[in-house]
Amino acid sequence: MNTSAPISTTQRASAILSAATSGLPAPISVIDLTAFDANGRTMVSRAHGHPIRVATKSLRVRALLERALAIEGFSGLMAYSPREALWLVGEGMRDILVAYPTVDADALRELGANELALAEITLMTDCSEHLDLIAAAHPVRPVRIAIDVDSSLRILSRTPFPIHLGVRRSPLHTEQDVTTYLDVAQRNSQVNVVGLMFYDAQIAGLPDSSPAVRLVKKISRAELAQRRAEIVAAMKARVGQLDIINAGGTGSLHTFDQATEITEVTAGSGFYHPGLFDGYENLGLEPAAYFGLDVVRTPTRGIVTAFAGGYIASGQAKQNRQPKPINVDLTAIGTEGAGEVQTPLVVRKGAPAPRIGDRVWLRNAKAGEQMERFNVTYLLEGESIVDKLPTYRGEGKNFG
Fold first, then answer.
1. What confidence tens digit (pLDDT) does each residue in 184-201 have?
2. Which among 257, 287, 361 has a CA at the least distance from the CA of 26?
């Protein structure tokens, strides 16, 4: 076991990363294995004994998925595409829940003709059109499906001014919505309902940015816990025991201590601990994913410009979606930000400015999206690079 300490986000980290990657070209991606492994163990300790399914979109490096699964307490994968799931099954991985519905007819036909994939992959559905597309693929045996239950918080839903707090996912929100859909699914001989998913984006995916946000999270947790228990009970009364009752994400693992109705939780971003997670309280995680850029210009006193770096995270186009320099003496320019071919950085007054040729280090705002920019990621152990791994992109795979 690696017993060295995570390098964290300090000037010391910048020096270690730059020294370790000296001679390697930038832009460059690095994963601190010590922090990666420690984050996995921390997430297990926060999950209250629930097995954790690994979210593949948050890692996007096949060998790191395998490393995550080797940590006791992790079991199974949550993929984001059926083509991705088929590829992973072909590479020897098992028990894959696809978290998002698909209308990819070719992928459905490929799944339907593959006995092993049919046994190991569960598709997500929430409407009759999904079921029709699966049936049209004529699978050689029924396709395992789960039902995606909208886990957002709805306030004043019966008034002219309803409030929706959460992401826009499934149309199935209430017990009646779910059981009505179950009736439709059970009439389709090409599918077998084996699970439910409850992703609480307004809790797991929302930083603790203010007392108001923390209050909304508390209200939402209580509402969802009651509704989830009622839906699970209604489903079990109709179909018996379910294989999968999935809930949560990295930011909400700690909230399921009383959730005896679920069978598992999901996490992935916590392995890398990207910039957005700096806004969460008491996660106990360490940054593990970094990317380095080389300084190529000094346009004026107090500003340096690095090559590339415009790795903006998905979501609302706000400041918190920008990469974060890990050196506290450097900040992005608000009027320009991180760019496609250049990223200017302001040097704190009185601090030493990086010179042309020096390397600056940043963290992406979100986790797996960094890997879409690199063919390989290097692995840091202690203060040395010990290996490099192909990303999905480096293996020629892009699933959207």
1. 999 999 999 999 999 988
2. 361
